[in-house]
Amino acid sequence: MQSTSESVTSVQTVLSRLVTAWESHDAEAYGELFTEDATYITYVGTFYRGRRDIVESHRTLFAGFLKGTRLADEILDIRFHGPGVAVVNGRGDTYKGKRPQKLRKIQTYTLVREEDGQWRIAAFQNTKRKPLMEAVSYRFAPGLVPAADR
Q: What pLDDT score was predicted for residue 1?
């Protein structure tokens, strides 16, 4: 069994490999980081189920809309729920050229340690942030400001 620090490193490595696969535009390598039955929800709300669906959608994206892009990723929090489940919250974005200072999407990854001992992503949710709407809601309802931002 891995220690917590080893598990943190293993989970961080999976997300680092995700960025590397994206930068190579390698849909197969990207998909290998997901479980066979993974779910993937894009920021526009598209729902993909299964590694093959994730691979094929990214093959199309890398050849079209996201051709030449890179992936910026920032881990905000990693929490373990037992020895084989990790929930990761982070920020991310795609970009060309210079890495953006502010990442516009908030993301949740659920990773599981599979029977082969490898951590893989079982579920991914990507939501585009709307800072103006956040600011307006915080102004009129200060109780909505997250504790971390106070």
A: 56
> How many domains, in total, are found in the chain?
1
CATH classification of the domain holding 52: 3.10.450.50
How far, CA to CA in Å, does 97 sit from each of 58, 74, 75, 85, 92? Answer: 20, 18, 21, 35, 15
Distance CA 106, CA 75 (A): 10
Predicted model pTM: 0.90
pLDDT over 70 (residue 2):
no
Beta-sheet pairing, 34-41 with 85-95: unpaired
Which domain covers residue 84, as residue numbers? 4-149
Answer yes or no: are the C-beta atoms of 76 and 91 closer than 8 Å: yes
Cα–Cα distances in angstroms (integers) from residue 137 to residues 48, 51, 98, 107, 142, in the given order: 31, 38, 31, 21, 8
